[in-house]
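Exercise 7b. Backbone tokens:
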């Protein structure tokens, strides 16, 4: 095959459209065009172009991943879902994820620790575990992050005291407090303990 045209895209000049034998073949990152020394008139094989295209797609995916990570801290699964949602092949995304790990842009262990520390005052361990699982973090990493918190009881008590402000200490409030703390992700033993403490040992109706 002969490269018959190679020109930057209008909307994204960092990507080039490549034509072989007068027919559009693919688009490549400018960096890949330069590295592979592609130019009009050069003869190339399909195998060569596929290898160049794969390298270019990884570079393009890596750029998109960094743009996504610049907006917020993410887990590997979140970056995976973002890139596959943009149409990248799974093999390309896997290579991008590996590159992000290599450069320490992605670290699910650190992500889990940061997430737990950020929300430990407002969420219980059950809810934190569920949310981290939804983000694709491995259970062993979640366990390690949660183990760094000495006790969620203090935060549960703070949440309960805020809930009770301006409310009567009656059966309706007590039941509402139970639902509130449970929705925050605190386990039953913690919830019962807090309610018993704040309602002078009364049992939940």
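Sequence design result:
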């Amino acid at each position: 095959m002969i490269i018959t045209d190679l020109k930057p895209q209008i909307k994204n000049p960092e990507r080039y459209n490549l034509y072989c034998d007068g027919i559009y073949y693919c688009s490549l990152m400018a960096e890949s065009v330069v590295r592979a020394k592609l130019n009009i008139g050069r003869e190339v094989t399909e195998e060569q172009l596929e290898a160049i295209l794969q390298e270019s797609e990884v570079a393009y995916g890596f750029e998109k991943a960094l743009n996504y990570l610049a907006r917020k801290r993410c887990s590997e699964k979140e970056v995976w879902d973002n890139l596959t949602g943009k149409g990248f092949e799974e093999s390309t995304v896997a290579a991008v994820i590996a590159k992000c790990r290599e450069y320490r842009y992605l670290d699910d262990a650190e992500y889990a620790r940061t997430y737990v520390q950020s929300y430990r005052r407002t969420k219980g361990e059950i809810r934190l575990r569920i949310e981290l699982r939804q983000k694709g973090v491995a259970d062993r990493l979640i366990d390690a992050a949660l183990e760094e918190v000495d006790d969620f009881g203090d935060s549960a008590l703070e949440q309960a005291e805020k809930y009770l402000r301006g409310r009567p200490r009656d059966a309706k409030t007590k039941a509402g407090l139970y639902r509130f703390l449970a929705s925050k992700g605190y386990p039953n033993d913690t919830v019962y303990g807090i309610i018993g403490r704040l309602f002078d040992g009364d049992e939940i109706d």
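Instructor comment: The radius of gyration is 27 Å. The first strand starts at residue 3 and ends at 8.
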